[in-house]
Amino acid sequence: xxxxxxxLAYDGSAxxxxxxxxxxxxxxxxxxxxxxxxxxxPVPTICAGRTDTGVHATSQVVHLxxxxxxRDESWMRGVNAFLxxxxxxxxxxxxxxxxxxxxxxxxxxxxxxLWRGRVRPAIWAGRAGWTHxxxxxxxxxxxxxxxxxxxxxxxxRSSQCQAASPIRTxxxxxxxxxxxxxxxxxxxxxxxxxxxxxxxxxxxxIGQGREHSGWMQHLLLQRDRRLSAPTFMxxxxxxxxxxxxxxxxxxEMALSPDLLVSxxxx
Length: 266
Prior knowledge:
The chain is of the alpha+beta class. The protein has six helices and ten strands; from the N terminus they run βαββαβββαβββααβα. Strands 1, 2, 3, 4, 5, 6, 7, 8, 9 and 10 form a ten-stranded mixed beta sheet that branches. The protein starts with a strand and ends with a helix.
């Protein structure tokens, strides 16, 4: 059976995360319902990264197996005809049988949009995090350096995390200012449950002056989730990239949140 890869974008505000649930108010359930209507048979999917309730994506990747033969353009436009406006197939492409959306991924990239302002931003409700505190961006950047590399991230791991190991490798953690926004870009080979939001919470504690930048290294060494900051809101979190071996030749057509910010603020 041919294997098809799809690139998805979705506004996670209305959905209870990616993974299928009995109530079926998830992105996976909604996508599989649309696929079943298009293909006229059940179509299970596997994704690159399971996003939480309220988390968005511009570059989610899924794969599926089906006997149905259609052009790539037909997969994209045909499935979109059965999807709600908040979920959209951005591209479709046949891939080799050994491609796996999750296990073939070399890295995932998340972007967090944080609005700084005295009052909450109505236009960005559900699409950006918010803080009314002044932030020491330099201290946050100093703290971020401690996370780069391979570490035990137990201090940033949800108690509900089902990963076999807390060891992950961070390859990028950039913190940029764009007008009223702070744009945080995080890249790793994989992420633990709530890991990005827990890192964000601790970065904000440092940025607000509640802790010094060296506290981040202390948290890593202690490996105790109870010592780090509370989990930050999901509103501004976007899955913005999944990297694969060039041999798979996957199309990349998603709009990342930093480009969206530039468009809205210039």
